[in-house]
Prior knowledge:
The chain is mostly beta strands. The protein has one domain. It has no helices and ten strands. The chain has strands at residues 4-7, 19-21, 25-28, 39-48, 54-56, 58-67, 73-75, 83-85, 90-91, 97-99. 19% of the residues are buried.
Amino acid sequence: xxxxxxxxxxxxxxxxxxxxxxxxxxxxxxxxxxxxxxxxxxxxxxxxxxxxxxxxxxxxxxxxxxxxxxxxxxxxxxxxxxxxxxxxxxxxxxxxxxxxxxxxxxxxxxxxxxxxx
Length: 117
């Protein structure tokens, strides 16, 4: 199901737990809407930060889109903080990871091996 969920609380986190975006758009209309320990999973929809800074515990990118709009997404927490990509690649132990709009994060997939006959 599509649609847009807009987070815009003032002074408190709008979301106090983990977040999964499978379709539609999760739109941040103000900074710091998600609790800093949250695991955010993007599984097919769009997480649109709209230029608003956010700090979360971990980010899982299975598919879908992360749009920062010039804002910084910070991953903080313990030594188990991770960035997980859709192909199963996990980067563990990132106490502080800042993703900027111009930061090149690329997923590398292995090419299938061809059998010679």
